[in-house]
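Aggregate trends can hide what the representation actually does to any particular protein. In the encoding step, the backbone of a single protein was reduced to a row of integers, each denoting a local shape. The record that follows shows the chain in one-letter code together with its fold in token form.

***
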Amino acid sequence: MYSKAPASTKSSTRYIPKNPDRILDPPDIVDDYYLNLIDWSPNNILAVALNTSVYLWNAGTGAIEKLLSLEGSDFVCSLSWIQEGDCLAVGTSMGVIQLWDCSERRRLRIMGGHSASVTSLSWNSYILSSGSASGRIIHHDVRQRDHRVAVLSSHTQEVCGLKWSPDGRYLASGGNDNMLYIWPVVAGQAFSQPQPLHSLR
């Protein structure tokens, strides 16, 4: 009734296309390796920063909409979607973060705190972490009027990337100082200046 012969293993080959599915031509995208100018939303919308403006491309419908334009010499340096909705964080060269409700196409608030360009952003529920060209990282509680809850100051040069772990317990930060730091989550409401748990060069 049962065969003792070993079960056959079915080999599967992953297909990788040679050509892209779509080509989007962003004419005014800033040529700067350290900036984070695109981000996908959980609702399959791609946000793209083109110098002073942010555009939204709906991958399902192909529709393109302009969300915002900055004034003067300010330009967009970083973008990050919250994972629980339609809120997009926009970091600028003037050290400011704008929060936008993209479903309503309206700005929710403006948050300061950085003295240099906001080059990277990462969400952890209602905590938004921002890294700047000065090397400083700030945790913002977007629910609070006094939004700054922590400042991380170990990087000596520009923060190039930020990413929270899926469980929300750790933040990884990479900088132009060739350092990678792992930070613990900040507990409580009091302002703090935590130290990294690990560092890699």
Remarks:
- DSSP finds no helices and 16 strands in the chain.
